[in-house]
Amino acid sequence: MSTSEVLTRSAEHLLIPTQWYKDYPWLIAGFTTRKQGVSRLPFASFNCALHVGDNEQDVMTNRQRLVERLGMSLEDMVCGEQVHGAELYYVKPGDKGRGSRGSDSAIPGVDGLYTDYPSILLTSFYADCVPLYLIDVRLKVVGLAHAGWRGTVAEIGPKMVKRWQAQFGSRPEEIKVLIGPAIGGCCYEVDDRVINALGSMMPRLSEGVIRDKEGGKYMLDLKQINYDLLIHTGIPGSNIDISQWCTSCRPDLFFSYRKEQGRTGRMASFIAIRQKSAQ
Length: 279
Description:
Layout lengths: L7 E4 L2 E3 L1 H6 L3 E6 L23 H14 L7 E3 L8 E3 L21 E4 L5 E6 L3 E7 L4 E7 L1 H5 L2 H13 L6 E5 L9 E2 L1 H7 L11 E3 L5 E3 L1 H10 L8 E3 L24 E7 L6
Parallel strand pairs: 4-7, 5-6, 10-14
Antiparallel strand pairs: 1-2, 2-3, 3-15, 6-9, 7-15, 8-9, 8-10, 11-13, 12-13
InterPro entries: Cu_polyphenol_OxRdtase (IPR003730), Cu_polyphenol_OxRdtase_sf (IPR038371), Cytotoxic_necrot_fac-like_cat (IPR011324)
Organism: Caldalkalibacillus uzonensis
Cofactor: Zn(2+)
């Protein structure tokens, strides 16, 4: 597990996993910030989500800027509905464009997307929840999982690993994971309802992922919990990087649902296999 920041700015509005780009030139991946878009307050300015009440044309302009930056098009983008669950969907070429121009065409009921087809831009949206990026470096399979506390409790990350093992023959030691920017244990306050939901997974969790506060409140480190759960699938710790960015600590750079009392935009996580794989 990396203790330094694994995402670096390639532009004011994009963060990219520099080491992954060096090691896997067939890969496109990254995370947007709130910078250099056209959306107006309270969505200023690079809001990428259509479901938050922002002007639709502004969102589409932001999305168009993103795909152009990546050398792709909106027809390549695929989005899930994101219902805070743990359902997964295998994206195929016939799914291209779903959710890219309207929420009604997004893949329903799913929070995890994966593919082994090139030129499909898997995309999901965030304003505190944990983005999980997974790649099988041998088989060239890529995936995104949206892990809020409910998705984390439902073990969406481990479910994707197990799906890949069954479907593709993936080996955990050949899967790399990046846990992206999210609200950190410094800022994520929860109550007994969330703590109780962790239930039987508690023995698998690191000491310190839950810190008690007064009044039945706790501070929870969702990024570390996802790391702990993925370790138990057999993925080596050296294969998992955790971004140090906290979305709540940096409202200048990120949207934060908690920090901004629910009225804000969303960043986008994205991952794709390049059309022509470089060797």
